[in-house]
Write a structure and sequence with these properties.
This protein is an alpha+beta fold and about 325 residues long. Strands 1, 2, 3, 7 and 10 form a 5-stranded mixed beta sheet that branches. Helix 3 runs antiparallel to helix 5. It has 2 domains: about 110 residues, Helix Hairpins; about 160 residues, Immunoglobulin-like. The chain has 6 helices and 14 strands.
């Protein structure tokens, strides 16, 4: 049997169609793809710069502090082995006193502070201090670059409604909708969005293949994006969702993949965000509550903490 290709079906998503049933979501809630790569050495797939740029700030500062302590401990051992008395440290006050003062001198040398009370007094300690000063310059140059990279990289804080809904539309039609908003106080322009619907369909050989369909939007692009955008796909006879019930979407493990991009004034470049709704995150027979009001001064107010609120609606 020859399968007739739906005019909205797309095959260049970069995602495999050979998914078995009962799969996890394709795009996770944080926007990353739910893909685990195997077959290559771990070190080959690991990039230290990418890792340090993308981890959380708390983990970044914790790792930076840990590295700072470790490198100072290494040079402290060198100074202690060369003899703390050659740094002008009193050795008759005990081993701990000599070790801690060697550590403090290492920290002063690494950061080029140099208070001056403790200083190298023979060739070996001078050589170690010279090497540490050079290492310190390189380490802090790298740290400065990482901090700049973390601060300057384009980031978004896009809020998506918790659920997508299927609601009543004009002329006895229904529509698939969700909301999106920019949580940052930045200005976005030329915002574009694309929805790719995906579900399992039977293949000619009796197996199931995951198919991808482009959903045509009422407005796929808006010029200004200062408030909340209710993205709307009208389910008419040209829609891949036409005639599908919520039970069918659940049975076929439907997932709706969202790609958003816009020009951000702050970064002066295009930013993007990804999201998805699984079949069990789609509410049938609902409508979003109004969250944009005009105050007494005529200024618009948007209640982003209520952007996911909906109420039941007759279909």
């Amino acid at each position: 049997m020859t399968r007739i290709k739906n005019q909205n079906e797309i095959e260049d998503t970069g995602l495999s169609s050979k998914f078995q049933t009962r799969t996890q979501r394709i795009i996770k809630r944080d926007g990353s793809f739910n893909v685990r790569k195997t077959g290559i050495p771990r070190l080959e797939s690991f990039n230290l710069y990418h890792y340090l740029i993308n981890i959380s700030w708390s983990r970044f500062f914790l790792l930076a502090l840990l590295f700072y302590v470790i490198i100072n401990l290494i040079f402290t051992l060198f100074y202690y082995a060369a003899g703390p008395e050659h740094l002008g440290i009193e050795t008759d006050l005990g081993t701990l006193h000599a070790f801690m003062n060697s550590f403090f001198f290492s920290a002063q040398t690494l950061t080029t502070v140099g208070f001056g009370r403790v200083n190298p007094q023979n060739s070996w300690t001078n050589i170690i201090a010279t090497l540490e000063a050079g290492v310190g310059l390189m380490v802090f140059a790298v740290a400065t670059g990482l901090l700049y990279g973390r601060f300057s990289r384009p980031v978004t804080n896009m809020k998506f409604s918790t659920n997508a809904i299927i609601t009543r539309w004009a002329d006895n039609l229904t529509a698939f909708q969700f909301r999106i908003a920019n949580a940052f106080n930045t200005e976005m322009m030329d915002a574009e969005i694309q929805i790719i619907a995906s579900w399992l369909e039977p293949a000619d050989d009796g197996t199931e293949l995951r198919k991808f369909f482009n959903l045509k939007l009422e407005y796929a692009r808006i010029v200004f994006f200062p408030t909340v955008w209710t993205v709307n796909h009208i389910i008419n006879d040209e829609s891949p969702m036409y005639g599908k019930t919520i039970e069918e979407l659940n049975k076929q493990e439907a997932e709706f993949l969202i790609l958003f991009k816009a020009y951000d004034d702050t970064f002066a470049q295009t930013v993007n965000a990804r999201f998805s709704y699984r079949h069990d995150e789609v509410v049938y027979g609902a409508k979003f509550k109004r969250i944009i009001i005009i105050d007494e001064s005529g200024k618009s107010q948007v209640a982003l903490d209520h952007m996911s609120d909906y109420e039941k609606a007759e279909m």
